[in-house]
Inverse folding.
């Protein structure tokens, strides 16, 4: 059997008062997910481990069957790979936000009003500079996101971020050891120059004129060196896989693990993504691949914004798009889950376990009536961990060899 893994980024949540104590997933009308839950099995999953708050990077590594404690070297290299930026041995890569700061270098908006246009022009103004003997490679990503790669001698990933992760003063990067101080110094100088260049850039002058927050600084975090990720095929008994994904982080992670990235027109990695086109692309990919990952980012964005109603509406859109995959689908194990919980009440990731459902013709079913956090707690899959998921799906698909005689 084939395997389809649908990851609804940040979909899991906590009770919302406006929904009479229901989570967004409970409040959403999701007839297609509910049908799979009735005909299949559900459960809860600690994506990393109980009490651990997953990052999107470490979460997706776990869901693809890797041990994040072994292969994770920082988020930056995955973001860079997702944007097609090569990260060589000795390089240090960072993920960045275009953000808004005032004249005192206080962050007033970490996403610059979720800027979604002209970031290529801003990135071009920063790309190619040289600081001491270090080359600066900078490229825009989706919306406010970007990647920074430092290239040159004597660099180290063991430095702190300049992004404060919330409104407040831009941080000063520090090295963990004396030999790391050069990288911290370069990063601090880049941050300073990014403000000087972007603050007077025509794009930002126009944004201020029309009342929008300027994207007048690039804030870096998530430093990392190139990871050594075993191929997905080697990891999972020869499975060949593909991914339908719009966001650079997951695209890069999948690419580095050897999954084929299926290009989809309109797959933006944001709230305006073409869900139906992605669903159709995933179904087509199942005809040529053993495993397909279908990723939807927007539930996480609504969670970070604290927009519970927007989250409900988008979950319903995902459910509608899934019908394009499910109609007539056979000989396939389908799994739907989240990479982490992003409660609207927190506007950030949480350690709460996520619901997971598994469906396939001829497989067992339990007494679950619908798909949500509450129902999944009593499902037949029980309580699993993220890096057990692929092994379980491969087993259900008849892909795993016998252990023993």
């Amino acid at each position: 059997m084939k395997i389809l893994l649908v990851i609804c980024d940040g979909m899991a949540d906590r009770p919302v008062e406006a929904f009479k104590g229901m989570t967004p997933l409970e409040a959403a009308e999701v007839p297609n997910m509910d049908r799979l839950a009735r005909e299949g099995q559900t459960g809860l999953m600690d994506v990393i481990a109980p009490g651990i708050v997953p990052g999107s990077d470490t979460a997706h590594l776990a869901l693809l069957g890797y041990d994040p404690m072994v292969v994770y070297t920082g988020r930056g290299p995955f973001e860079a790979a997702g944007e097609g930026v090569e990260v060589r041995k000795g390089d240090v890569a960072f993920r960045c936000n275009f953000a808004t700061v005032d004249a005192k270098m206080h962050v007033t908006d970490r996403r610059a009003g979720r800027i979604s246009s002209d970031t290529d022009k801003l990135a071009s103004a920063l790309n190619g500079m040289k600081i001491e003997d270090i080359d600066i490679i900078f490229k825009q990503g989706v919306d406010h996101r970007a990647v920074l790669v430092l290239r040159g001698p004597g660099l180290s990933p063991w430095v702190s971020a300049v992004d404060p992760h919330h409104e407040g003063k831009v941080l000063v990067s520090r090295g963990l050891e004396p030999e790391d101080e050069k990288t911290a110094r370069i990063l601090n100088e880049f941050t300073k120059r990014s403000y000087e260049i972007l603050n007077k850039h025509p794009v930002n002058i126009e944004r201020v004129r029309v009342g929008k927050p300027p994207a007048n600084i690039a804030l870096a975090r998530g430093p990392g060196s190139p990871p050594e990720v075993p191929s997905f095929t080697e990891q999972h008994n020869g499975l060949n896989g593909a991914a339908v994904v719009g966001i650079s982080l997951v695209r890069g992670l999948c690419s580095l693990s050897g999954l084929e990235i299926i290009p989809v027109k309109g797959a933006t990695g944001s709230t305006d993504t073409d869900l139906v086109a992605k669903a159709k692309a995933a179904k087509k990919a199942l005809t040529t691949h053993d495993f397909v990952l279908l990723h939807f980012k927007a539930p996480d964005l609504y969670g970070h914004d604290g927009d519970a109603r927007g989250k409900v509406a988008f979950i319903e859109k995902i459910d509608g798009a899934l019908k394009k995959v499910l109609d007539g689908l056979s000989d396939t194990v389908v799994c739907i889950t989240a990479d982490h919980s992003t409660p609207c009440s927190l506007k950030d990731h949480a350690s709460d376990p996520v619901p997971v459902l598994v469906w396939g013709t001829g497989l067992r079913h339990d007494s679950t009536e619908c798909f949500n956090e509450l129902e999944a707690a009593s499902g037949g899959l029980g309580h699993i961990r993220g890096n057990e998921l692929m092994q379980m799906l491969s087993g259900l698909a008849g892909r795993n060899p016998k252990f023993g005689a």
